[in-house]
Design brief:
The protein is of the alpha+beta class and 367 residues long. It folds into two domains: 205 residues, Neutral Protease, domain 2 (Orthogonal Bundle), CATH 1.10.390; 130 residues, Jelly Rolls (Sandwich). Helix content is 24%, strand content 26%. The chain has eight helices and 19 strands. The strands form four sheets. It has a six-stranded mixed beta sheet with strand order 1-5-6-4-3-2. Strands 9, 12, 13, 15, 16 and 18 form a six-stranded mixed beta sheet that branches. A five-stranded antiparallel beta sheet has the order 10-11-19-14-17, with no helix packed on it. β5 and β6 form a beta hairpin. It is globular.
């Protein structure tokens, strides 16, 4: 379960009519979705729960719901080129598309959450549509992009600066709330021209306020939402056994070609803690407590430091560890999340223990 490299994806959802019913052999069904996929792209119970949560959040926040089941086709990477040419715009940057009525999706696995967020939302200007889909996918952190918001209002979804779109939309959500954002979405393709009808200031005025007041970034909506671990008094830390079962575990999800489950815990005081698990690999990160005020650089962290989960600039090598041995790491005080992973899709029970380190600690400033 060597972790996937984090890359910036050109995830676009051009709202075009798509055919449905491809011959993909695996099928799953949820309250709102009828999913077809390939054996190379299986899903777990936790994936299906997370997909429904995307739709529920959009309904709760923005007031839009899905009236009929959405047909979702998830294509393996090697088949995507042909699928894209048949069902979607042929631009090679497109890795997913959603029909204009939101009832049919064709996508690769990395773009799936983004496409699901498009389904309940009516057509609107690409800048807002792409920003909303990234934010409500739940998995995208945001930070300032490469261009100004106004520079993106009159261009296609393929050309939109995704970073700018999602950060500006997230800023609108955090500054004025979800009700106002829902009003803006209801304006559809007129959202940019009638922006002032909702927010009481022109788009140019809002952009100036954004550059003056917006934080550097925001953590994703789903950040650190794992089940809390129970504290064990006898250990002075946390200990548990977890059955990582793809079929029945409602918090077990796929992670590349691995299975993953997350748990959270709160470190009461900064210091060194020992971590042990017989999982194939673990991911550790410190949870965000609010907006990001400045960029986090990998040079800030030594090898034994647990980095914050919202630090998009930090490579996964800084918080990935192989299972089967005890690692001593420095934790800051606060909430943390640990991901326990297994290579492949065959589940099993894994153990986990976290406790204050008892042996000698590294000298300050040295790994």
């Amino acid at each position: 379960m060597r972790p996937r490299q984090l890359v910036t994806l050109s995830v676009v959802s051009l709202l075009v009519a798509c055919d449905s019913g491809p011959a993909l052999p695996l099928s799953y069904e949820t309250e709102h979705l009828r999913i077809h996929t390939d054996p190379d792209v299986p899903l777990c119970a936790g994936d299906l729960v997370a997909f429904e949560a995307i739709i529920d959040r959009i309904e709760d926040d923005l007031g839009f719901s899905i009236e009929e089941k959405v047909s979702v086709s998830i294509w393996p990477e090697e088949a995507w080129k042909n699928a894209r040419e048949h069902y979607c715009p042929t631009d090679p940057r497109v890795i997913g598309c959603t029909s204009s009525d939101g009832t049919v999706i064709h996508t690769t696995r990395p773009a799936l959450e983004h496409e699901l967020a498009h389904a309940p939302i009516p057509y609107l200007a690409p800048f807002f549509a792409e920003g909303l889909a990234d934010v409500y996918s739940g998995v995208q952190l945001t930070r300032f992009g490469f261009t100004a918001p106004a520079d993106n209002l009159a261009i296609s979804a393929v050309e939109v600066d995704q970073r700018t779109a999602r950060h500006f939309v997230r800023w609108l959500r955090e500054t004025w709330g979800t009700a106002k954002l829902g009003e803006l979405v209801r304006l559809g393709k007129h959202a940019d021209k009638r922006f002032a009808d909702v927010y009481g200031l022109s788009f140019a005025e809002a952009e100036a306020m954004y550059f003056a007041e917006a934080p550097y970034g925001y953590p994703s909506l789903n950040t650190c939402d794992g089940t809390p671990l129970d504290f064990m008094d006898d250990l002075g830390g946390w200990r548990t056994d977890i059955d990582i079962d793809c079929d029945t575990g409602k918090d077990v999800h796929t992670y590349g070609t691995s299975l993953m489950v997350e748990r959270t815990f709160v470190i009461p005081a900064a210091g060194y803690y020992s971590v042990s698990s017989n999982a194939d690999g673990i991911l550790l990160s410190r949870c965000a407590t609010g907006p990001l005020e400045e960029a986090i650089r990998s040079s800030t962290f030594l090898g034994e430091d647990v980095p914050p989960s919202y630090a998009g600039e930090i490579d996964e090598e800084f918080h990935y560890y192989e299972g089967g041995s005890i690692v001593d790491l420095h934790f800051e005080a606060g909430k943390h999340e640990i991901g326990l992973g297994l290579f492949g899709y065959q589940g099993r029970e894994v153990n986990l223990a976290i406790w204050p380190s008892l042996g000698p600690q590294p000298v300050e400033g040295k790994p």
